[in-house]
């Protein structure tokens, strides 16, 4: 796991205060409510789903939990925007695109940076040896994903203009097929797809270390958060508990959760080893980093107008 041993207690304290500050409600207040959670094959929410503790904690409050899987972040946030999902997790780039479309989208919390959890990959026998070699190449990437931002920053480091590559905007499953059959020259992607490709022989051209932060964000609709602070409080408490368990024993966690999340234990363990867990409030520093992501996409004309990330922070008691 990434993170500084001295910084972790501070994060834990901040997270505890953050969770406690959301407040509580009576069972009568919560009766007959639902939380619809969008998750992906990465991040803490799929671990929470696999553990199965959230349902047990919310049942006494009369709250039903429903889960919906998404391949990547943008469709998940579109579902939140459309009112089909109440809560979900994505990397750093999807909320930028979603905020343009929906000013009601809010950041509720985030995990620490996991820069090593995504990478730009090439086939094992590829002639591409450096980031500069990506010029003129076709690169698979999920548009608006965290790895889209990684690709932008990797090209920048290699002295390659974004306009000098051919982006192939593909969902992970389609990108994997294109990568395997040689339809694309490289693939910018995150765990566990990254881990699976690596095990299959893909070569890492670069991971995100030194290029991106790769925060994982927990997001919702502002009105849902305002009306259901007690549900969010329980969810974050359970998420914290699962993350602590995974951090202490990732091998055992991978073995136990593998059947539930549908990822082979060795791949899940590899992905967990690159993750950084410790859910807490979105600080001003994190929001400032997100603003840099937004400004980068605006400069590349990938979003149509400027946004202010701080406008999308959930208003919760700290």
General description of the model:
This protein is of the alpha/beta class and 318 residues long. The chain has two domains: 7-112 and 215-312, Periplasmic binding protein-like II (D-Maltodextrin-Binding Protein, domain 2, 3-Layer(aba) Sandwich); 115-207, D-Maltodextrin-Binding Protein, domain 2 (3-Layer(aba) Sandwich), CATH 3.40.190. It contains 14 helices and ten strands. It has helices at 7-21, 27-30, 44-51, 53-58, 73-81, 94-101, 146-157, 172-180, 193-199, 222-227, 229-248, 250-261, 265-274, 284-299, and strands at residues 33-39, 63-69, 87-90, 105-111, 118-122, 138-141, 166-169, 186-190, 203-207, 216-221. The chain has a five-stranded mixed beta sheet with strand order 2-1-3-10-4, sandwiched between helices. Helix 1 packs antiparallel against helix 11, helix 3 (44-51) crosses helix 12 (250-261) and helix 5 runs parallel beside helix 6 (94-101).
The CATH top-level class label of the largest domain: Alpha Beta
Rounded to an integer, what's the Rg over CA atoms?
19 Å
Class of secondary structure makeup: alpha/beta
Low-confidence stretches: 1-31
Number of helices: 14
Shape: globular
Which percent bin holds the helix content? 40-55%
Mean pLDDT across every amino acid position: 88
CATH superfamily annotation of the largest domain: Periplasmic binding protein-like II
The succession of helices and strands, N to C, reads HHEHHEHEHEEEHEHEHEEHHHHH
CATH topology of the largest domain: D-Maltodextrin-Binding Protein, domain 2
């Amino acid at each position: 796991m990434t993170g500084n041993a001295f910084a972790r207690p501070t994060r834990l304290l901040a997270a505890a205060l953050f969770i406690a500050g959301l407040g509580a409600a009576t069972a009568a207040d919560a009766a007959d409510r639902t939380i619809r959670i969008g998750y992906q094959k990465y991040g803490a929410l799929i671990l929470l789903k696999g553990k199965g503790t959230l349902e047990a904690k919310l049942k006494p409050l009369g709250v039903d939990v429903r889960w919906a899987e998404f391949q990547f972040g943008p469709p998940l946030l579109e579902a939140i925007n459309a009112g089909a999902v109440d809560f979900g997790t994505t990397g750093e780039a999807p909320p930028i695109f979603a905020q343009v479309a929906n000013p009601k989208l809010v950041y509720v919390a985030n995990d620490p940076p996991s820069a090593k959890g995504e990478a730009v990959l090439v086939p094992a026998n590829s002639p591409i040896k450096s980031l500069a070699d990506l010029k003129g190449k076709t690169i698979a990437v999920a548009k608006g994903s965290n790895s889209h931002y990684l690709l932008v920053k990797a090209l920048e480091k290699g002295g390659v203009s974004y306009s000098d590559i051919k982006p192939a905007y593909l969902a992970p499953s389609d990108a994997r097929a294109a990568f395997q059959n040689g339809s694309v020259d490289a693939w910018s992607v995150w765990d566990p797809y990254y881990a699976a490709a690596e095990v299959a022989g893909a070569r890492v051209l670069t991971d995100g270390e030194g290029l991106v932060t790769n925060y994982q964000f927990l997001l919702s609709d502002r009105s849902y958060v305002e009306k259901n602070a007690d549900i969010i409080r329980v969810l974050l408490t359970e998420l914290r508990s699962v993350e602590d368990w995974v951090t202490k024993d990732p091998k055992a966690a991978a073995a136990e959760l593998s059947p539930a999340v549908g990822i082979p234990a060795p791949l899940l363990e590899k992905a967990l080893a690159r993750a950084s867990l410790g859910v807490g409030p979105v600080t001003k520093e994190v929001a400032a980093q997100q603003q840099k992501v937004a400004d980068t996409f605006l400069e590349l004309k990938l979003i149509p107008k400027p946004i202010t990330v701080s406008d999308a922070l959930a208003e919760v008691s700290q």
